[in-house]
Design a protein that fits this description.
The chain has 138 residues and is an alpha/beta fold. The protein is built from 7 helices and 5 strands; from the N terminus they run βααβαβαβαβαα. It has a 5-stranded parallel beta sheet with strand order 3-2-1-4-5, with helices on both faces. It is globular. The protein starts with a strand and ends with a helix.
Length: 138
């Protein structure tokens, strides 16, 4: 599965710790991240992460583009609800795209843990099955 890792500045350390804790699960999937988040995750783990621009410089929109192309399966976006973000419209658009295309999105560690365990159990395999069926009918 394709997983996006995004974290606001005050949540980057949480994403790093999360990635370290669940490295064994994450390593089995294709990972994408906004710039600094991806850099920090790769520095702390052995995970291979495709990095995009920093969120405020368009990274959120690059990930949003993959969502719109049905090329993303899960978004782990650890948001900082207490700090205003200058690119809030981009964040809202990304979450809206997740809703439009039915992409699970976790906005904090607690939800991330639920999704990562569901991923491990195969609970998100329905996305793969639907995509394969759609590809056959094109």
């Amino acid at each position: 599965m394709r997983i996006a890792l995004i974290a606001h500045d005050n949540k980057k350390q949480e994403m790093v710790h999360f990635s370290m804790a669940y490295e064994g699960i994450l390593e089995k999937h294709e990972l994408f991240a906004t710039g600094t988040t991806g850099k920090k995750v790769m520095a702390a783990t052995n995970l291979n992460v495709t990095r995009f621009q920093s969120g405020p410089l368009g990274g959120d929109q690059q990930i949003g583009s993959l969502i719109a192309q049905n090329a993303m399966d899960l978004v782990l976006f650890f948001r900082d609800p207490l700090t205003p973000q200058p690119h809030e419209p981009d964040i809202s658009a990304l979450i809206r795209l997740c809703d439009v295309y039915q992409i699970p999105v976790a906005t904090n560690v607690a939800a991330g843990e639920l999704f990562i365990r569901a991923l491990e159990r195969g609970d998100l395999d329905w996305r793969k099955i639907i995509k394969e069926r759609e590809d056959r009918h094109e």
